[in-house]
Design goal:
By secondary structure, this protein is of the alpha/beta class. The chain folds into 2 domains: 45 residues, no CATH class; 333 residues, Metal-dependent hydrolases (TIM Barrel). It is built from 15 helices and 12 strands. Helix 5 runs parallel beside helix 7. The longest helix has 19 residues.
Length: 405
């Protein structure tokens, strides 16, 4: 199209999408008047909610076809203190057991794994709150004492803490992206601590010796490491949350973080790593596959990444087929009680995951929110065969977590 024709086409399109700079009134000219005046209709991007005109099957999957272990939930968190940072042993809890069990029954969830169980006395309290009264329904992961990482003797201290946590009932260790993107040599100042820093080697080895997995999250979507501009497909998300961006300053690149993680996995072959969010790189399944080929002790789970997997269904289907014994089910769910809006959100969240895995439905939202939170695209179901579904929903996690049923 010639430049003049292209400009005329855009001018006559009738809709102007803008991220900002337009008064918060949405459409400022009635449609009829706009047609008569030949003026475009200003519309803020945040208010743009197109409704698909496709007439395609819509399958409601209220319960999973087979029992589920959700290996990625957050039922608790370290209590926030000054600056909104969770430190120490004090915990906060998002939902009581009596609120969670009905959700689990409705959605066919056999076990929820609470990854953020805390440390020390907070971890013990978390285990008492969920796991002790219902050991067949809730499992708890411990976390490292990040705030002590710059103290003398930390390496052995942290390894010993893993042993103590396991003795208290912890079934694994959770690594937040604190390591690699937030933790600094002087905790709040100084250079960032690298993912493959050798002071953590004893911790990784302790997990391997005890036979407990490490759930590790050290990076975010690739777009979070790029400029927040008109070329960034996650522009809306990052524009709303600029503090989620890791572009510039002294942040390492996404590739540098992933390679540092790979060096950790390679150095500790008897430790089983569950690399969260589809290996922290769901947009690049060939790379994730290369890593899994190199490291037999690497496993992945799905949490908060069906938006990426579902827009590349053919490649995702091949990925699930090849690595069917090393893919786990997870959602990143943070259930918060039984008040009606949250209950509906919780139910819809699981239903979307089940629909993605079990059906061949086309072009549907990957999250309960009407405007998708990560990017303006829809997803396609994989329609996995039963043999793979059973592994992803339950069997792979049961093997790693040593659940005998």
């Amino acid at each position: 199209m010639a430049e003049t024709g292209r400009r005329r086409f855009l001018e006559n399109a009738g809709v102007l999408l803008a991220a900002g700079g337009i008064p918060a009134g949405g459409v400022s000219v009635p449609a009829g008047e706009a047609d008569q005046a030949g003026k475009p209709l200003p519309l803020q991007l945040k208010d743009f909610e197109p409704r698909s005109m496709l007439h395609v099957p819509e399958t409601k999957v209220l319960r999973s076809r087979y029992p589920v272990i959700d290996v990625h939930t957050h039922l608790s968190s370290k209590a926030k203190h000054a600056g909104g940072v969770g430190v120490g042993e004090e915990m906060e809890y998002f939902a009581p057991v009596d609120d969670l069990l009905p959700l689990m029954e409705r959605k066919n969830i056999r076990i929820m794994v609470n990854l953020t169980g805390g440390v020390g006395k907070g971890l013990e309290e978390t285990i008492r709150k969920y796991q002790t009264p219902h050991p067949d329904r809730f499992l708890t992961f411990a976390e490292p004492w990040w705030e002590r990482s710059n103290q003398p003797g930390y390496s052995q201290f942290q390894a010993d803490e893993v042993v103590r946590a396991h003795q208290a009932g912890a079934r694994g260790l959770k690594i937040l992206k604190t390591l690699g993107l937030y933790l600094r040599e002087k905790i709040s100042t100084g250079p960032l601590v690298k993912v493959d820093d050798q002071r953590f080697d004893a911790m990784w080895e302790a997990c391997g010796s005890l036979g407990i997995p490490v759930a590790i999250h050290v990076s975010d979507p690739e777009a979070f490491f790029l400029p927040i501009d008109r070329f960034n497909e996650r522009f809306e998300e990052l524009n709303n949350h600029p503090d989620w961006s890791f572009y510039g300053n002294d942040f390492p690149s996404n590739a540098e973080i992933l390679e540092a993680r790979n060096r950790v996995i390679a150095r500790h072959p008897r430790t089983q790593f569950i690399v969260l969010h589809v290996g922290n790189n769901a947009e690049n399944l060939p790379y994730v596959g290369e890593c899994m080929d190199r490291f037999p002790n690497m496993h992945v789970e799905l949490a908060a990444r069906i938006g990426e997997l579902g827009r590349q269904p053919r490649m995702s289907g091949k990925f699930f087929e090849k690595y069917q014994d090393r893919i786990l089910f997870g959602t990143d769910a943070v259930p918060r009680g039984i008040d009606t809006p949250q209950q509906i959100f919780n139910d819809q969240l699981y239903e979307i995951y089940y629909r993605f895995l079990e059906t061949e439905d086309e072009y549907f939202d990957y999250a309960p929110a009407r405007v998708p939170p990560q990017g303006r695209w829809q997803i396609y179901g994989l329609g996995l065969p039963d043999a793979i579904l059973k592994k992803v929903y339950y069997e792979n996690a049961a093997r790693l977590l040593q659940i005998h049923t």
